[in-house]
Amino acid sequence: MHASTRPRRKLEPVAFKPPRALGVITGGGFTAWAAIAAGVAAQTALGAEAELKTFVAWVLAGLCLALAVVFGNWTYGVFSLAYMIDRDTLTIRWGFRRIVVPIEAIQRMVPGRTLDEAHVSGLNWWGCHVGGSDVKRIGYTLFYSTHTSPDELLYLVTNEESYAITVLDQAAFAEEIQARAELGPVEPHLQRSEATGLAALPFWRDRHALVAAGIGAAACVVLGGYVFARYPGLPRVVELSFPALGGVVRVGDKDELLRIAYLGAGIVGVNTVMGMLLHARERAAGLWLMASTGLLQAILLAAAVVAFGRA
């Protein structure tokens, strides 16, 4: 692709932003749907008696809320998508991720209208195409695009990766890249992908940490399901052997047994957050804290079985 013959101007940082309205509206719709579903499930659970159906409603509320957060994050990615060109690099900004491409590494730019339409594997909805695809004549390509037709795509082939982006004024983009390439880099840069903010926490890239957190959460669901399933069959006043008081058995309201499930949920929340933060400083300590969550849930489940058996 050749640049247009425009007058040379001072090379300042410039940003090219693709059309994002369609992608943001679509992603925002998914986010709102999940948030509304979470609200409906939570509202149903709030006024209901403690039983298994109520617990299921709480679990659905939590899952829908998590889904809303995920869709919200992806929608923010579409909203923030931009291609920043400075003196030596092209930076693709996608949400909390930055893909830095040295301009000297860009070998060629290929307009999308000259290639067959690619089928992207990854995030795909109207106005959002983020993922990968094997593109004929290009090879495997990473897409950070909001295109609605191949004409809006521009392929960047580099020494290491190929990228597909949405640029409406492709001549202006090519001119900015070529003007900097002709001057050469001021300093060397590595081609890389890096996260920012909470996304930069090493927890998200540690499979063992993710498994430990998942086991703790699953064990908490089992504990809560057991407590809420057994609760309706108890009389109003029961013998309480939890917590243990030196062998002394109290008599009290059965609502106190629900504290076992609440305690388990609290442990999951606190240990997961603290474990993620600690993991960033000391991996072994963070893993231990998150792994202990599942063990504590098992202890609480055993205590619940004993307590309900004696109630």
Q: Which architecture of the largest domain per CATH? A: Roll
* Sheet with the most strands: spatial strand order: 5-9-10-8-7-6
Q: What class would the helix/strand composition place it in? A: alpha+beta
Helix content: 40-55%
Binned strand content:
15-25%
Q: Which residues form runs of ≥5 with pLDDT under 50?
A: none
Main beta-sheet annotation: 6 strands, mixed
Give the distance, in angstroms, between the N- and C-terminal Cα atoms.
78 Å
Number of strands: 13
Instruction: Estimate the mean pLDDT confidence.
Output: 92
CATH topology description of the largest domain: PH-domain like
Shape: elongated
Could you tell me the radius of gyration in angstroms? 27 Å
CATH top level assignment of the largest domain: Mainly Beta
Question: How many discrete structural domains?
Answer: 3
The number of helical runs is 6
Summary, kept brief:
By secondary structure, this protein is an alpha+beta fold. The protein is built from six helices and 13 strands.
Can you tell me about this structure?
With 311 residues, the chain is α+β, with helices and mostly antiparallel strands. It folds into 3 domains: 14-20 and 81-200, PH-domain like; 22-79; 202-310, no CATH class. It has helices at residues 21-46, 52-80, 170-183, 207-230, 258-281, 283-310, and strands at 14-16, 82-85, 89-94, 97-102, 106-111, 121-125, 128-135, 139-145, 153-158, 162-166, 192-195, 237-245, 248-253. The strands form 3 sheets. A 6-stranded mixed β-sheet has the order 5-9-10-8-7-6. A 5-stranded antiparallel β-sheet has the order 1-2-3-4-11. Strands 12-13 form a two-stranded antiparallel sheet. Helix 2 (52-80) packs antiparallel against helix 4, helix 4 (207-230) packs antiparallel against helix 5 (258-281) and helix 4 packs parallel to helix 6 (283-310). The radius of gyration is 27 Å and the shape is elongated. The protein starts with 13 loop residues before the first strand and ends with a helix.
